[in-house]
Design brief:
Layout lengths: L1 H18 L30 E11 L5 E12 L4 E14 L2 E16 L4 E10 L6 E2 L2 E2 L12 E10 L2 E10 L32 E7 L2 E2 L4 E12 L4 E3 L5 E3 L5 E13 L4 E12 L12 E10 L1
Antiparallel strand pairs: 1-2, 1-17, 2-3, 3-4, 4-5, 5-8, 6-7, 8-9, 9-10, 10-12, 11-12, 12-15, 13-14, 15-16, 16-17
């Protein structure tokens, strides 16, 4: 049985790594990566009230752009039922002769454990930029912005049945950003003329459902496959060069992502996690610049 699990692990990782280039895109606003919406990765019965994480990621985005960044996260268990999470993110993009970097967002959320099987999360995404970066005095598209620039409300519920872990959540923007990108403002020979205009961008909300199932490879090594459908609730909007508001047709709809989490428990306090992800189904239009055909994330966390 152990040998079979190792074979399953090898096949899964091989598939993800060798086939990522065929993925068309993965869109989310970051809420699928907060602590309470990720699969539970430990079976340890030892209780710690504090957890600190540091992580880095690399991915391939639309329009020949590479993305990379890092994050810091702190989780605090206030009592048996209540906990708090704070996460700070950064993002850099490189492609088409343009490089950009900036602080992205702060995620703050509170968790309530209603029972051993049911957990609730309420939080917010606080932007650290307003998506108004420029290049040669011209506004850049969302693909080069460090943040969506929106203040978002986040709510989710988690449920566990046997070993199957289920998460359902919604992220709804309460404000919009200050992006002013209009593709036709760029020269005819510029690659950016092919990007979606997002002047006065109005972004819709998202709902997600995550289904994951942990598989113990050894006492210290765990593989957790995860399926993550995200539905963008309505078409986004922008205002064109004639000051006319337009819907971005095709921006509403489903993105279906697959993830594989590999956790190595050095000891009860120290864990290293590798997370690989790619999409299987994408929306026709993804103007928010969050598309990822492949992403790899490495994380170290310590409990105390």
């Amino acid at each position: 049985m152990t040998k079979f699990k190792f074979i399953l692990l090898a096949i899964t990782l091989f598939y993800l790594v060798t086939n990522y280039s065929y993925g068309q895109g993965c869109s989310d606003a970051g809420f699928c990566t907060i602590n309470s919406f990720k699969p539970n990765s430990t079976d340890s019965t030892e209780v710690f009230n504090n957890q600190f994480k540091v992580g880095a990621f690399y991915g391939n985005a639309d329009n020949s752009i590479s993305v990379y960044g890092n994050y810091l996260e702190y989780n605090r268990q206030l009592s048996e039922k209540f906990g708090l999470d704070v996460k700070l993110t950064t993002l850099a993009q490189n492609g088409n002769g343009i490089s950009a970097f900036g602080l992205s967002d702060i995620f703050v959320n509170a968790n309530f454990k209603a029972s051993e099987k049911v957990k609730f999360t309420l939080g917010a995404k606080i932007p650290l930029s307003n998506a108004s970066k420029t290049y040669d005095k011209l506004p850049l598209p969302m693909d080069y912005q460090a943040s969506l620039g929106t203040f978002d409300l986040i709510f989710g519920i988690g449920y566990e049945i046997k070993k199957i872990q289920l998460i359902a959540a919604i992220q709804q923007p309460l404000t919009q950003n200050d992006n002013q990108f209009i593709a036709t403002n760029y020269p005819i020979n510029s690659e950016l003329r092919t990007f979606q205009s997002t002047n006065k961008f109005e972004r819709s909300g998202d709902v997600l459902l995550r289904v994951s199932y942990p598989i113990n490879i050894t006492s210290k090594l765990k593989l957790t496959p995860s399926i993550l459908p995200i539905y963008h609730l309505s078409n986004d909007k922008y205002t064109d060069e004639f000051n006319v508001e337009n819907e971005i047709v095709g921006s509403q709809g489903l993105t279906l992502n697959g993830n594989a989490y590999l956790d190595y428990e050095i000891n009860s306090k120290n864990i290293i996690q590798l997370n690989l992800g790619m999409p299987f189904i994408v929306r026709d239009s993804r103007p928010d610049g969050l598309t990822r055909s492949f992403i790899a994330n490495i994380e170290y966390r310590i409990k105390f």
